[in-house]
UniProtKB/TrEMBL annotation:
The B regulatory subunit might modulate substrate selectivity and catalytic activity, and might also direct the localization of the catalytic enzyme to a particular subcellular compartment. This is Serine/threonine-protein phosphatase 2A regulatory subunit B'' subunit alpha-like isoform X2. Residues 400-435 form the EF-hand domain. One of its GO terms (cellular component) is protein phosphatase type 2A complex. The lineage of its organism: Eukaryota, Metazoa, Chordata, Cephalochordata, Leptocardii. The keyword NADP does not apply. It comes from Branchiostoma belcheri. InterPro entries: EF-hand-dom_pair, EF-hand_13, EF_Hand_1_Ca_BS, EF_hand_dom, P2R3A_B_D_EF-hand. One of its GO terms (molecular function) is calcium ion binding.
Length: 565
């Protein structure tokens, strides 16, 4: 038998004040009551009272005026306005009467009902509008697409005349144009294009009489370095730069820079190096993918700063932007391994052998489909040119670069709608999934992979990834590798986070491309100098641009035309 123990209990009760005809407003948890003694009660002409029906805090403190009362107040204001004489002073604003003593003791905030003042024909002096601006005032010019004009007193032209006076017969040849460029406040390696812009290609020399009119037109119309560079490179014919415009400048660097003297002995490598530099310039500077570099794109890039640094740095490899010979060496060796027939074009089957098939076949199909074709020039059908391979390798090894993100986004956007949908992600992941199964690796289901990628990128549109999302994310390289580069994806998954952090700290200040190029260059040099090889290259041969045990006779080919496509 169960014994029940008496437990002392305490009854709690709450006192709730009850008003007459109380209605509870659940939204505000306040009482709405009919108050006949409220200080906002209005009476009609017949004497009947109108209940306020306003929200109260419990002590008849009104905090809102019901619609019925608001309409009555508005009508009274209209009547009062109609009776006012047009010459009478403006009526004072009418305020609601002060609350009673009991209302003043209430701790709740008071809300005063304000009535709009009546208008009058005689405006108040304080309400006069400010004086309008004079009609003849003009806004100073603030947009200078060719640079802000600077006063010129003719001193620069006088210096130019003096320089030509020191030369034999007053003629400046191509080798002498460095002095002319410096007098014109131009970087040293503008001298080649400057010589051609002055008509030096016609007679082989330039005189003061032919140079000064040209330079006078430039300084009068173009007022900053970017616009003058454009005018000199295009001979004042266009407002954009094409790939061919850079040939004289880079050829002059090859011929005269102290860090490339060894390259003068290997003439067949001049065009390879030249077109590599041009491709890298357009990869970084031409953000519009048009194949035409404009003045705004020049201003947003560091191209002119890099060209200026060429005269200060004798070691060309220290200039990692655009001009490094070691970077050219790595790029050309990678291309030469794939170009079996050495016609400077590779097929989709050739690209499939890159890094032992690291790129998926579906992605290779997208690359050759024209998704990343630049400009309006179309290359040989079904083939990738050398300059296109330069873009591919730069994008593959540094997926943090803005152009690389655009490159791979174009490839993955199958329908071209500017969004990466779940269908498109599944299309590329399916091949990666099958590869992992064939290698005996337990793959992640697509649903789990999709959740992981969405959490990692955090797109603004749920379920769809935009180009902006990828540019804002720091995990974009892993995102791309997950869908078309299995080798790098597995490397990400198996990498020790502490070792990766230490490596990033050691390589601080270097881009992913610079890190890759440095490692590959060391490996290539080591391969060439290994004993026991049939063709062993010493350092002198390597520095003279003999690439990858390839003889000069093997690499002699027909003239190669650069294509911006």
């Amino acid at each position: 038998m169960t014994t029940l123990c008496a437990v002392p209990c305490q009854f709690l009760g709450l006192k709730i004040p009850i008003y007459h005809s109380v209605l509870v407003d659940q939204r505000c948890s306040r009482a709405i009551h009919h108050c006949d003694v409220c200080n906002v009660v209005q009476r009609l002409e017949s004497g009947a009272a109108i209940v306020c029906k306003s929200i109260h805090y419990g002590v008849c403190q009104p905090v809102a005026i019901p619609p019925t009362k608001a309409r009555i107040i508005k009508k009274r204001e209209e009547k009062a306005t109609a009776k006012v004489s047009p010459h009478s002073p403006p009526a004072k604003p009418q305020l609601s009467p002060q609350p009673k003593v009991a209302d003043q003791l209430s701790p709740q905030p008071k809300v005063v009902t304000e009535v709009k003042p009546t208008t009058s024909a005689t405006p108040s002096p304080k309400s006069d509008p400010p004086n309008p601006a004079p009609s003849g005032a003009s806004i100073p010019r603030f947009y200078f697409p060719l640079g802000q004009p600077v006063s010129d007193d003719g001193k620069e032209l006088k210096k130019v005349s003096e320089v030509f006076g020191t030369m034999k017969e007053g003629k400046a040849y191509k080798n002498d144009f460095g002095e002319v460029a410096k007098v014109c406040s131009c970087p040293l390696y503008w001298k080649g294009p400057l010589f051609l812009a002055a008509g030096g290609d016609k007679l082989g020399c330039v005189t003061s009489a032919s140079f000064q009119p040209m330079w006078k037109r430039i300084i009068q119309k173009y007022h900053d370095d970017y616009s003058r560079f454009m005018a000199i490179m295009t001979r004042m014919k266009r407002s954009y730069l094409t790939a061919d415009d850079f040939v004289p400048l880079i050829q002059d660097v090859i011929d005269t820079h102290p860090g490339l003297t060894f390259l003068q002995e290997a003439q067949e490598f001049h065009s390879r190096y030249l077109h590599t530099v041009i491709a890298r310039i357009f990869y970084t500077v031409n953000r519009s993918w048009s194949g035409q570099i404009t003045i705004p794109e020049l201003r947003k890039s560091n191209l002119l700063q890099v060209i200026s640094s060429l005269e200060e740095e004798d070691d060309i490899n220290q200039i990692t932007d655009f001009f490094s010979y070691e970077h050219f060496y790595v790029i050309y060796c990678k291309f030469w391994e794939l170009d079996t027939d050495h016609d400077l074009f590779i097929s989709q089957q050739d690209l499939a052998r890159h890094n032992d098939g690291a790129i998926s076949s579906r992605m290779a199909e997208r690359i050759f489909s024209g998704a990343v074709t630049r400009g309006s020039t179309v290359s040989r059908e079904g083939k990738m040119s050398y300059t296109e391979f330069v873009w591919f390798l730069l994008a593959e090894e540094d997926k943090k670069h803005p152009t690389a993100i655009e490159y791979w986004f174009r490839c993955m956007d199958l329908d071209g709608d500017g969004l990466l949908s779940m269908y498109e992600l599944e299309y590329f992941y399916e091949e990666q999934y099958n590869k992992m199964v064939s290698l005996g690796i337990e793959p992640m289901p697509f649903e789990d992979c999709l959740c992981q990628m969405l959490d990692m990128i955090n797109p603004t549109i749920p379920g769809k990834i935009t180009l902006r999302d990828l540019k804002q994310s720091r995990m974009t390289p892993l995102f791309f590798d997950t869908f078309f580069n299995l080798e790098k994806y597995l490397d990400h998954e198996q990498r020790d986070p502490f070792a990766a952090a230490k490596e990033a700290e050691d390589m601080e200040g270097m881009s992913d491309w610079e890190r890759y190029a440095a490692e590959e260059y060391e490996m290539l040099v080591a391969d060439e100098t290994m004993p026991g090889q049939d063709d062993v290259f010493d350092d002198d041969v390597l520095e003279s641009a003999e690439v990858r045990r390839v003889t000069r006779a093997d690499m002699e080919e027909a003239d190669y035309d650069y294509t911006g496509a």
